[in-house]
Design brief:
By secondary structure, the chain is an alpha/beta fold. Helix content is 33%, strand content 20%. A hairpin with a 7-residue loop joins strand 19 (409-413) and strand 20. The radius of gyration is 22 Å and the shape is globular. Bound molecules: inosinic acid.
Length: 441
């Protein structure tokens, strides 16, 4: 049974939630391995729309086991809120949800530090979601973080909290001029959260290995995306975790040797929310048109997303960094009424044309995208059941993209519903999950 990683290839919001939702009936377990409630995965099931932030979208499939891995940072209040929302809508969590005891906890001072840091950075701000994710990872790396298991040990939790509150208060007061926290105002609510979450907190790395040994198939659900990776993204305009495929192993405790394939998810165009380089960003009316047609507003913050053309350099970079076997292309339908569609094939830089994504903030400031234009298909694509159903010009667009990125598409999404999905012939996806088409019927 294959264990597959699903990873974003651009700046997030590629539609990973929908792809995971389509693949979940093929697997037994879905794992989140990094990030926190900065993520927002939107899944539409029939007439119901779900926005999930911390819990893998696999939870919407009865019987699917969902794991919040050790690489995730958990805001317990927000997690409980999400759990209550799911239970109210008839989703069973008991026996299906497992939270790593090693996952770090987002404390109330983390969002405050996030806001303070952003305000201090001024024009150089990152444009974070303000959920405290970065500061929680800072504490993890500084080895003063509080883990889920610590919440279950009152004495240890109080000790750690006391140290942290004193340290954070100094930063909040003296550096950011912000409000401070008392131990009491955090301790009791967090002990309540601990009581609530205790039945779900466990050694998930051990569980996952046992399940894999027993022949279970695992899907690793990435959050954010390659260009937001702490090491490989457009640093410093990135998130604070390892969003790329390598993070799936460290963030879950499943060794890389047990991972069998990597699937990237890309939009037929590109978006970015937050600040930082975005070489193919559209200007003016076109950007507004795509934003409206693609409903490009952040699922977590509601911020309007910046919109741009498909960037083949970004995709080739994602193929290389993640070792992608295949790509699922989403939101093709958003381009259905565009007279022309542009593809970025290179960056002009000081008289040269670069064809590999360059690393380095200063290079990215100077580059100009080189575009190839293809004729738009001006025909609806939603409802197409196979590649042959797509208009010829849309097929040509897809073929050109495949040629430029060097790996085959496995899935084309033409709308938010599960059945607005084409599974491509001869793709690695059909090799991994031969019956994937049947779940769309
Ligand atoms: P943080 O993760 O809140 O620290 O934000 C760092 C950067 O990552 C900002 O540009 C955010 O807009 C971006 N970001 C974080 N989570 C997501 C996501 O789920 N989708 C898209 N962008 C995200």
């Amino acid at each position: 049974m294959p264990n597959i990683v699903v990873v974003g290839t651009q700046w997030g919001d590629e539609g990973k939630g929908k792809v995971v939702d389509v693949l979940t009936p093929q697997v037994n377990v879905v794992v989140r391995y990094q990030g926190g409630n900065n993520a927002g995965h939107t899944v539409v099931v029939g007439k119901e729309k779900y926005v999930l932030h911390s819990i893998p979208s696999g939870i919407l499939h009865p019987g699917c086991r969902c794991v919040v891995g050790c690489g995730v940072v958990v805001d317990p209040g927000a997690l409980i809120h999400e759990m209550e929302m799911l239970v109210q809508r008839g989703v069973t969590l008991d026996g299906n949800l497992f939270i790593s005891k090693n996952a770090h906890v987002i404390m109330p001072y983390h969002p405050a530090l996030d806001r303070g840091s952003e305000a201090k950075l001024g024009a150089r701000r990152i444009g974070t979601t303000g959920k405290g994710v970065g500061p929680a990872y800072v504490d993890k790396a500084a080895r003063i973080g509080i883990r889920m298991a610590d919440l279950l040990d009152q004495k240890l939790f109080k000790e750690k909290l006391t140290y942290n509150v004193a340290q954070k208060n100094r930063i909040l007061r003296d550096i950011y001029g912000a409000q401070t926290f008392s131990i009491e105002e955090i301790l009791n609510p967090y002990l309540d959260y601990a009581g609530w979450l205790a039945p779900y907190i466990t050694d998930t790395a051990l569980l996952l290995t046992k399940w894999i040994d027993n022949g279970y198939s695992v899907l690793f659900e990435g959050a954010q995306a390659t260009m937001l990776d702490l090491d490989h993204g457009t640093y410093p305009y990135v998130t604070s975790s390892s969003t790329t495929a390598g993070g799936a192993a460290t963030g879950s405790g499943v060794p890389p040797t047990r991972i069998n394939g990597i699937l990237g998810v890309a939009k037929a165009y590109a978006t970015r929310v937050g600040d930082g380089p975005f070489p193919t960003e559209m200007k003016g009316e076109m950007s507004e048109y795509i934003r409206a047609r693609g409903n490009e507003y952040g699922a977590t913050t509601g911020r309007p997303r910046r919109c741009g053309w498909f960037d083949a350099l970004v995709l080739r970079y994602a193929v290389r960094i993640n070792g992608l076997d295949t790509v699922a292309l989403t939101k093709l339908d958003v381009l259905d009424q565009s007279q022309t569609v542009k593809i970025c094939t290179g960056y002009r830089y000081r008289g040269d044309v670069l064809t590999d994504f360059p690393e380095g903030e200063s290079v990215l400031r100077e580059i100009q995208p080189v575009y190839e234009e293809v004729e738009g298909w001006m025909t609806p694509t939603s409802g197409a059941k196979c590649e042959g159903d797509l208009p010829a010009k849309a097929r040509r667009y897809l073929e050109r993209l495949e040629e430029l990125i060097g790996v085959p598409f496995c899935l084309i999404s033409t709308g938010p519903q599960r059945d607005d999905t084409i599974i491509c012939d001869d793709s690695p996806l059909l090799r991994w999950f031969p019956s994937v088409r049947s779940t769309l019927l």
